[in-house]
Amino acid sequence: MDKLTADDLIYGYINGIFPMADSDGTLYWYAPDPRAIIPIHTYEPAKSLRPVLNRNQFEIRIDTAFTEVMQCCSKPRSDDDSIWISSEIINAYTELHHMGLAHSVETYIDNQLVGGLYGVALGSAFFGESMFHHVSNASKVAFHHLILILRQQQFTLLDTQFINDNVRRYGAIEIPKADYLKQLKLALRHKVRFVEPVGNEQ
Predict the structure, then answer these.
(1) Three-state DSSP class for 184?
(2) Which spans in the chain are helix H?
(3) Distance set, CA 176 to CA 15, 33, 140, 181, 195 (Å)
(4) Which residue spans traverse the membrane (predicted)?
(5) Which helix (H) or strand (E) holds 127?
(6) pLDDT tens digits, residue range 62-106?
(7) What is the DSSP letter of 124?
(8) Pairwise CA distance, residues 10 & 96, whole Å
(9) What pLDDT was estimated at residue 24?
(10) pLDDT category of residue 21 using cuts at 50, 70 and 90
(11) Residue 51 binned pLDDT confidence (cut-offs 50, 70, 90)
(12) Side-chain half-sphere exposure of 95, counting CA atoms within 13 A
């Protein structure tokens, strides 16, 4: 396969597959069965997060530091953590971002990026890719803000790919691949925009 492009990513997502890099940079495409999703309308922030949201501790920005968010997400979180976001992946998703199809939600303190997440929006589906934090709760607040966007703009599918303890805390569940593909097909038919939510819903 030649160098990964934004068009490759679009083709992959609409067909239920996504790329990850091996430690040597080799790209592989994945289609998990079962597939992990987060039901958008059943998410509830943890009780411990409510005071953080009420304090407005973090400034939220959208799409102002996309590549930097990806670079932060690409760093290993521990000695035994695998690295799957290669420079080739960063370049391809940045290309997709410039096309208006990949987005980041960022959290700042004193103008410093301290957390965030990124993903891809196609139709009314949002494909969550990765998140990071340098300050406690920074990525949780970014995710909470993502949900506000998805709800207000009437997204119908939030894909989180694989189940793990991190996504379980946000309400992730597993569904059969066949069910996921049905939901994906419907979501791709429904066109919505990824824009800032209006109002102060929390």
Answers:
(1) helix
(2) 6-14, 50-55, 66-73, 87-98, 138-152, 165-168, 177-189
(3) 15, 6, 27, 9, 30
(4) none
(5) strand 125-133
(6) 999 999 999 999 987 765 566 789 999 999 999 999 999 999 999
(7) T
(8) 8
(9) 85
(10) very high
(11) very high
(12) 14
Of 91, 93, 95, 82, residue with least CA distance to 24: 82
Task: Assign residue 114 a region (left: φ > 0; alpha: ψ between -120 and 50; beta: otherwise).
Answer: alpha
Q: Phi/psi at 60 (nearest 5 deg)?
A: -105, 135
Task: Please give the model's pTM, rounded to 2 decimal places.
Answer: 0.94
Q: Residue holding tokens 């396969």?
A: 1
The residue type at 59: E
Reading the block at residue 57, the tokens are 């501790």
Distance CA 186, CA 151 (A): 17
Phi, psi of 96 (to 5 degrees): -65, -35
Residue 196 DSSP label: P
For residue 159, the surrounding DSSP H or E stretch is strand 157-161
Q: 135-171: per-residue pLDDT in tens?
A: 999 999 999 999 999 999 999 999 999 999 989 999 9
Q: Cα-flanking dihedrals φ and ψ of residue 172, to 5°?
A: -65, 145
